[in-house]
């Protein structure tokens, strides 16, 4: 079963998260297939840029709670997105939750339709947005991020732009991205790669400094009794025991 769709047009490789029946949750299998597709795109001289998008009404619901990936796998994928020598552009027309926001943070440019919604839901199931903080904390507004991390509230595309999670939003996300992709096609590949290195240097410093600790934190929290209660409550569609 293929979990990542691949198409190409005028040097732009589009990779689509394609598990809509699971709301494109980040399973071990999906992460592995996406990592392989990114490796192929990075090595292919015919690829000038990568668009990361989705099928269905959800970009990604975050970690697959029935089959969560190892924290190391998510850490590795996020770093791969940041280090890829081609620009990566996120195209969102649906909902983004938890780990899905880490994917947006690791992309170089991100745009969404006005109907998209966002939420850091980790605290509501008893964990923390640990690994996804590696690309997000250097790029997003710290005060806005504090509110959304701590409350798990849902917010819209305009707030996501203000927070720094998105580059732009609009009624028609393809119209928003058309000039972006045309601009990338005009740019020299070597210049794009070097410019991306300039832009991601601070993010990679965060990976070098904090990846081991945040990966260990994520593993500890996901294996805790609190997380087991939170994930069970979510799957059973009830409030966890700590709600007052």
Automatic annotation (TrEMBL):
SUPFAM superfamilies (UniProt xref): ClpP/crotonase
Residues in the signal sequence: none
Protein origin, superkingdom: Bacteria
Pfam families registered for this protein in UniProt: ECH_1
Family membership: Belongs to the enoyl-CoA hydratase/isomerase family.
Name by which UniProt lists this protein: Enoyl-CoA hydratase family protein
């Amino acid at each position: 079963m293929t979990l990542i769709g691949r198409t190409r047009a005028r040097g732009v490789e589009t990779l689509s998260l394609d598990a809509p029946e699971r709301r494109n949750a980040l399973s071990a299998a999906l992460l592995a297939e996406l990592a392989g597709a990114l490796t192929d795109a990075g090595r292919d001289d015919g690829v000038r840029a990568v668009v990361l998008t989705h099928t269905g009404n959800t970009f990604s619901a975050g970690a697959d709670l029935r089959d969560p990936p190892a924290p190391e796998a998510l850490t590795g994928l996020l770093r791969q997105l940041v280090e890829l020598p081609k620009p990566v552009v996120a195209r969102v027309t649906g909902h983004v939750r938890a780990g899905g926001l880490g994917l947006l943070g690791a992309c170089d440019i991100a745009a969404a339709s006005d109907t998209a919604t966002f939420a850091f839901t980790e605290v509501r199931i008893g964990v923390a947005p640990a690994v996804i903080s590696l690309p997000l904390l250097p790029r997003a507004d710290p005060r806005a991020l504090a509110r959304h991390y701590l409350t798990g509230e849902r917010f819209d595309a305009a707030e996501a732009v203000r927070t720094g999670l998105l580059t732009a939003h609009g009624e028609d996300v393809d119209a928003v991205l058309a000039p972006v992709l045309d601009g990338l096609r005009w740019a020299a590949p070597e210049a794009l790669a070097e410019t991306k290195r300039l832009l991601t240097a601070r993010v990679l410093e965060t990976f070098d400094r904090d990846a081991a600790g945040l990966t260990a934190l994520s593993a500890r929290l996901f294996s805790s009794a609190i997380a087991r209660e939170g994930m069970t409550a979510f799957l059973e569609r009830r409030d966890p025991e700590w709600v007052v």
